[in-house]
Every structure is written in structure tokens, then in C-alpha cells.
Sequence to fold (440 residues):
Amino acid sequence: MTISNLPGPKARAMIERDGKVISPSYPRGYPFVMDHGKGSEVWDVDGNRFLDFMGGIAVVSTGYSHPKVVKAIQEQAEKFIHISSDFYHENWIKLAERLNEIAPFKEDALSFMTNSGTEAVETAIKLARYHTKRTNFIGFTGAFHGRTMGAVTFTASKAKHHGGFYPLMNGVTHAPFPNPYRPVLERRKGEDYGEATVRYIEDEILNQILPPKEVAGILVETIQGEGGYIVPPEGFYPALRKLCDRHGILMILDEVQCGMGRTGKWWAIEHFGVEPDMITSAKGIASGMPLGACIARKSVMDWEIGTHGNTYGGNPISCAASLATIDLIEKEYLKNAQVVGEYAMDALEEIKSRHPSIGEVRGKGLMIGVEFVKNRETKIPDEEITDRTVELGFERGLLMLTCGKSVIRIAPPLSMSKSEMDEGLKLFEEALTAAENEMK
Ligand SMILES: Cc1ncc(COP(=O)(O)O)c(C=O)c1O
Fold:
């Protein structure tokens, strides 16, 4: 069943108003105009109901307006909305204590709270320079870390993000992200592709271009998000950790999209058995309230008073929402993300067997990417079928988003049930079949 005449009259009118007053730079997808949401369902202003496979770009971790999160926000709003980071309040401290408990390293953690993922990344960049007294960094192709001058320099998923904005930050060299489906480097016998990538960094970058003693940190999304939901090979992080240790370089993991329970563990790096020096978090950390954090080993976060700060850091409402979110993830949704994620991966493998346009299904927990290709042998990306499947999904009541060149990402609320997943996957396959038929 398709929803006829999308966008409806109310949505259409709002989109017209929006176009007159909102910056045209926002990369809008399809014409969805939100009215309200509950759990994994959302309704547009014309009363159409949709199932959500994208969770506000992997943000709405506990579903839309979870009653416990709403209550925490309401209670905090009645007490005070703001105090500024020049002073103290308990929810901020409690949140840092919780982050210390779950941080993916044994050493104690200190946290710097931010307003967004980008600001968390910016914080990590500054702290790495301050702590190491070195100026350079290594980032990765396909990365997305945000759009402020520092973060956008590392971002390398679309040239459009850089065009018109030079000069960017000095001192960032990009290495190829270890994408096992699309390798660009040669592997030696017995070497995994992640190890080959680290060898490339050592031999080609650190030996030939950038002396290691100039490198403050290596910044990498543990599982690449905007670049295509790419899980690096097993050997990558252990080898990268060793390289960082050899040269006194900080390992900085951007877990803004893949962290906070999305992959069925608190942090994606826990799948690889390695401890980083710093992580950045945001998106799912507060169910949609603006909040991010740069979480570092205590011995690394050694900057002096006044060297870095912000007005809204540790915002009371965001911290209250985050505490409620972390409780819910711990009690229910970490497990749910594992179980429903595995269930979805199996179902998608079955769907793949019926649709040759699917080249690969990959992911961990509820961070799943489905990559479309023109041909499984040549692996030429099929952007057309990807975009059309998303559009036709929308017309059938399913919200999806793309990433990379030709990938549909499945990043629903971590609370999504198996039956909702079934409903969504059915709509996904219907949309894909319709797109394939159109392109015959
Ligand atoms: C891995 C990663 N880092 C950083 C960011 C930027 O976060 P924000 O949009 O909250 O500034 C994003 C946003 O998509 C992201 O996916």
C-alpha cells in the first residue's frame, strides 16, 4: 500500500515556507514534515504514519519521546534550564561519573561536555595538540567528523564539504579507510586488510611524508558512518594501537554515530578488544537533546583551567535526558540492539539472496548498511537504485537514509521490536522490488 500524494497539503505548505527562511545548505532528503513520534513510529503533519529506520540519523536511541526521558526533561526544566559551565550541578557530575564507568579503557576517564558531535571532535583535536605538544594528525578517506574548520578538515566523505571553504586546518593527512569490500591497498600473504592499512600508514605516511614525532593523534570513526557504514577488518585496531604506542600517538575514536549502544555494546571499539586514548560521543547520548562529550583518559585530559570551555557544556536538561537514556540503554536496549540487530542481519541476508542489486549487507547491532551495486562482480555502485528505494520506501511508510555512494543505512531506535523490524524489512523489500522493476 502506498501513501498517495506525498507530501500532503500541510507538508507542502510548510516546505514552501521553510524554503523562504531556512539556509539552503541543509542536505534535505525526501519531504517528510514531522508532527509527532512515539517509539519507532512517526507521523507527519498530514496524519500519515511512518516506521522509522533512521532514528533521526542514529540519534533517537530510546525511541521518540520515551516517557522516562520526557519525565527527566520536564523535572529538570522545572528546577532550572541553565546555569553555565562556570558553575556546578549534580546531573552534570552524575553523567560524567556514568561515562567514567562505561568508558572503553581501564584508566579513569574525564569528560568535556559539548553541544554537538562536531564540538566533541573539535575538543579532541585541541586536547590532542595540547597534551602531546605535537601539531599533526592522520585521518581517513570516507570519514565524517562534522563541519567546523577543524572537524571538516578530517571529513572526507564528499568533496562538497570542503569546496569553497579553503584554507582548512593545517596538518591533516588522510589514509585510506580499511574497507574490506572495496580494498585499494595491496595485502601481503597472511595479512588482514586492516593490518595492510596500518602498514601503509607506517611505510608510506610516517616514513615518507610525516615524521611520527610530529603526529599528535590518529582520528578515526570506529565503524565508519556517513562514508557507508563500513566495519573495518578485525586486525585493524590491534595493529593501529601498536602503531600509536610505538610512536606516542594518541588513538582518538569518533563514536558519535557508532557509540552509545548502537552496535549492541556501549562502544563499537569493544568489538575489537582494544583501548583508545580518547573517544567522542554525541547523537544517541541524550535521545535527541543536544549533547556531546569528549571522553579521555585522565592522564591525557591534562589541560589547565581556562584553556578550553563553552557556555552550554553540561546543559542541565541535556544531562538529565542523557542519564535517563543511559539507564534505558543499560537495562533494555543494549541487549535489544544485539538481538534485533542479529535478527535483521539474517533477514537482510535472505533478502540479498533474492536481489542481485544488493552487493553486501554488513554491520553490528542496529548499525546496518546495505550496499547496492550494478553487478556483484564489478561492484560498480548503483546510486540510482539506492535513492529510488529510499523514495519508494517513503511512499510506503518507511523512513530510511542513505550513506556512502550507494548504501542504505538501517539505524532505527535501539528500542525497535522484532515485529517492527519485520514490518520495516517487508516495506524495504517491497520498495526495492518496485525500484528494480522500474529500472528493468
Ligand atoms: C561520526 C560522526 N562524527 C561527528 C558528527 C558530527 O556530529 P554533529 O552533527 O552532532 O555535530 C557526525 C554526524 O553525523 C558523525 O556521524
